[in-house]
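User: ok so my PI wants both of these folded by tonight, can you help

Assistant: No problem, let's get them done. Here's the first:
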Amino acid sequence: MEEQKAFKEAEPVKNPLETEKISKLLASFCIPSLASSLVTSLYNIVDQLFIGNTLGIVGNAATNVVFPVVTLITALSLMCGVGPSASMNINLGHNDKNAAARAVGGGFGLMVLCGLIVAVPMLIFTEPILHVFGCTDTVMPYAMPYARIISLGFVFSMIGASGPFLIRADNSPNYALLCIATGAALNIILDAIFIYGFKWGIRGAAWATVDAQFVSFLMVIRYMRKSFGVIKLKASDFKPDFRLYGKMAAIGAGPAFNFLTQALVQVFLNNALRTYGAASKYGSDICLAAAGVANKVNSLAVAMVVGMTNGLQPIASYNFGRKNYARVAEAARAVVKIVLICGCVIFACYQLFPIQITSLFGSGSDLYFEFAGKFFRIFYLLIALFGLQTSVAGFFSVQGKVSKSVTISLVRQVLFFPPLLVILPKFMGLNGVLWSGPISDLAMAVVASVLFTKELRKLDELQKHENTGHETEAAE
């Protein structure tokens, strides 16, 4: 009896990620992650609301031409969050806590490096970069100060957005949400003070964003210094290691590539709207402004998908490391199903209320609202399927299968959308620009569905093989 008691006491306590019901795990991880992602998107939405209602069409156009660099930062934040946190969980699944700690330190160094890589060129070459992004002469005086000021906070933004991934992986999803929510709430308060109180205009919106991101950055640093629980961090774990940075970047490349190519798509789209909008009854500035509002609103839809996918990440990556393939597949199926349901709700909103949504971001002419309605209804016609791009790509990323993750983004953002933006407008004018969106979404959805289905079958086969191996060991 004493020997049995000693044996039970020596048994390791299993991680809840391995034993808890998948539905309960998804609720505990996806809800805070979803909230974090939605709150993060509020930075851009709130700025757009204040700027649009203060400056009107020219303000909405200004934030739109800066949006590609914001998307680039989002992409790198995902890479610096997903890569290190997935590596941390996989190593914990293998019971290698030293490697998990190095993944955290390497992730932090990668965050700083990526923030500087984007900030420095943006500060030095602001005007030519904005011109490439589709900026017109009318909008440039507003876009330049906004772009330069937010660039000052890119390092803080990277750590404030990526750090919560590591905090969630450390089984503290609520604190991860608190880091982001605190910054978002402060951003709203400072927007009102700087824009309406100090009369700083678009500069006030930019400074509000930077200050709020700095607070989130401080909260992440505090957690890393004092609260990390699953593993113990040492100063040596943060030693610069570019080889390790490369490994972290490779793991997070899938979701990062998704947003990187979205930034590229926004550049192509803005230039097409500037060119073909000028030849239409709407004009370039109206097209850029309406698309800017639509893109910012759609960032909430993207945030829902990203939040659900990020909540899936610690569950799937840990269980993949533990060879619990059935749990990986079960969690992935549930997340993709929820993403598709949310996509249908968003589709209904875009089709039924595009004018009402646009009017929240300031006034405009009848032509402005007419084009905004067309943009929402045509460009986002297949928005219900768009979530497959992020959710399925994220599913592959947490398993370290970067090539499949990248392929899904590659289909829509590179192989279909840019060529369609060149070909369709030659025959359909501005309408061709709009129809390039849903056609690209359809192609992506087909590829994502095929890859996802095949991967689920493979996981089922791996689980059967794993179960057979355990049965053989038990028999022996």
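One down. Here's the second:
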Amino acid sequence: MKIKLIISILFIFELSFNLKAQDFHLTQYDAFPLYLNPALTGNYLGDDADYKINAVYRSQWRSMVKKPFTTYGISYDQPYKKFGLGAYILNNRAGVAKFNTLNFQLSGSYFITDPKKSPHILNVGLQMGLFYKSFNPNNILFESQYDNSTGSLNPDISSGENFERTSLVKFDANIGIFYKYKDDTKKYAPYLGFSVFHLSKPSESFSPEKNKVPMRFVVDAGCDFKIDDKLKLTPSVLYMNQAKASDLIIGVKGSYRIKDTKSDVLFGLNYRVKDALMLVVGIKQNEQHSFRISYDINTSYLHNYSGSRGAIEFTLILSGKKNKPLFSPKF
């Protein structure tokens, strides 16, 4: 029990203080597009909508710490003439120490091509905003608090640690470009996106020493295939690099039209290389709103600590039309 507790504490510090680690990632990254690429702001890639609201909730590492790591966020965006306008809030909370990162970004994009006149969809995007970081030192246990009489860490023993600063606010900015070929007469529609996060490389250190957040580079590619009138498949690849850390996700998502309806069953299977297998299921109602659930199964050495209890993630996408109610009576 003592060993598992110490491992859990070290694990929290590794994820929360190691500035070489990556930003928080999402399994259903396509369901929260403003966090994937600023150029996707107001860019619905053919979907018939005047605005969209996206929401996400993720919980992980329940078996390693008393309180799981959670991620939750909401975004809004819409096209306006040749622009896309939007914003998102994404919050991440890690474990009992409540390491918290709140990210707020205003997001905008510009349509270089007109998707109504050309099969080539090309956008560039820019985000500017703030991130707020904080933690609660009262919930952290240190090696100096080890009690020999009980064989465990004792919160009543003074740690001897002194934290002058437990929160900070910094400016942040991101850019991106996205291209997709979409011709309704074709059964395929390839796409490619590239984005860079943390252009300003703000310092996220709680001490006087400046430790800058490394830039995160993201490449997102794939192709939509219309197999028939009911079945659509999209193989995809996502690669992210930040300092010495990297992520590579390969997979496929799809939709199957329910007979005599305008609703689809959604499904997907992704693999984060050397990390996790990710299963996705969901429903899309009336070609408009969608809800999905995903579950990550650890395949790395962390499986020894987390067991079969992987991350679970929920996403909701609400697509609206002007002068029409967001929800139909049958929703």
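The longest strand covers residues 120-134. The domain at 2-320 is CATH 2.40.160.40 (Porin). Good luck tonight!
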